[in-house]
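About this split. The held-out portion is used to measure sequence recovery: a designer receives only the structure tokens and must propose an amino acid at every position. Recovery is the fraction of positions where the proposal matches the reference. Here is one held-out target exactly as it appears in the evaluation file.
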């Protein structure tokens, strides 16, 4: 401790106000003295899912389970995912090794942090924070077959879905609430409409919105790409363009990527909206707008240039980053 206090970086710092400890009676607790019980032992994962998924957890055998779910079941799939990560690390399991199929209304954080190899399907709806920290798993949400409403016009998941997701995919047949994909850094998502502040602070991944968006879309977005179906030309009024460009999509490879993801969306969720778009693809493709951050575009272009001179992988990425940094310095005049 003395060495840290004497470090030159600490000179001039005074934390006495922050570290001040008032004089109080012994009866006043100043640290944790009461054990907390969060009810984890009663969670769906602990009571049912882990036991049913044991063959997959222990020997990577395929598991397929059908269960009801209600909105008091929170963070469903997270404890199972933790067991997989402990045993198999970041690589997880092969795709669809574990398939958990639910019917009903899921509580908060459905599918949070689930890793590669887990697929969670929900016939019903879900609360806030769906797919929070998604880490390679797959989430599929769609209305029950007997529902009478039009999925593309009704909210099916709550706010802040895919918050901080790093990888994996989500296919949502219906509308999402506010702050969809906030801080997403690598997940792929297809959704049929979002509320305000969609893709806020996003740093990576791909998001396809085949419907309307709320206000302030892409605020603080510094990475990744969003594709928004803008049939009536009004999307620019809802997009925060401080850090992003809005482009029409001309690259055939990119167009094919969008089409393939919408096809997967239709296949997984039986989405009427996705099917409609695919059946009239030539008419819809021109209506997609690409939302791409200024800096991210420069890095992608620089990466392509580095590949043409023979650099690959991390070498190209690092060279592109350094090139973009130098360009920003020149523009700033520093």
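Reference sequence for scoring:
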């Amino acid at each position: 401790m003395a060495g840290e206090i004497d470090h030159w970086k600490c000179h001039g710092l005074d934390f006495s106000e922050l570290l001040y400890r008032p004089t109080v009676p012994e009866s006043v607790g100043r640290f944790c003295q009461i054990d907390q019980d969060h009810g984890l032992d009663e969670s769906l994962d602990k009571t049912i899912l882990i036991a049913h998924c044991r063959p997959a957890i222990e020997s990577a055998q395929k598991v397929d389970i059908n269960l009801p779910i209600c909105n008091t079941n929170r963070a469903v799939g997270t404890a199972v995912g933790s067991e997989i990560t402990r045993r198999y690390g970041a690589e997880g399991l092969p795709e669809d090794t574990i398939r958990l199929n639910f019917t009903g209304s899921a509580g908060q954080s459905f599918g949070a942090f689930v890793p590669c190899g887990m697929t969670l399907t929900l016939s019903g709806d879900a609360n806030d924070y769906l797919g929070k920290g998604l880490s390679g798993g797959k989430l599929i949400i769609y209305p029950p077959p007997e529902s009478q409403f039009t999925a593309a016009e009704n909210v099916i998941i709550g706010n802040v879905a895919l918050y901080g997701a790093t990888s994996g995919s989500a296919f949502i047949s219906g509308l999402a609430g506010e702050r969809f994909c906030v801080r997403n850094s690598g997940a792929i998502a297809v959704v049929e409409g979002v509320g305000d502040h969609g893709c806020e602070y996003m740093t990576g991944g791909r998001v396809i919105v085949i419907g309307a968006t709320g206000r302030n879309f892409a605020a603080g977005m510094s990475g990744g790409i969003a594709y928004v179906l803008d049939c009536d030309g009004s999307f620019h009024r809802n997009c925060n363009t401080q850090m992003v460009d809005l482009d029409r999509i001309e690259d055939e490879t990119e167009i094919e990527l969008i089409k393939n993801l919408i096809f997967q969306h239709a296949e997984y969720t039986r989405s009427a909206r996705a099917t409609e778009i695919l059946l009239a693809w030539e008419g819809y493709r021109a209506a997609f707008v690409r939302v791409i951050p200024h800096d991210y575009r420069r890095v992608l272009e620089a990466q392509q240039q580095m590949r043409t001179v023979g650099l690959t992988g991390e070498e190209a990425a690092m060279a592109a980053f350094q090139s973009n940094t130098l360009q920003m310095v020149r523009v700033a005049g520093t």
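Annotator remark: Residues 40-293 form a domain with the Pectate Lyase C-like fold (CATH 2.160.20.60).
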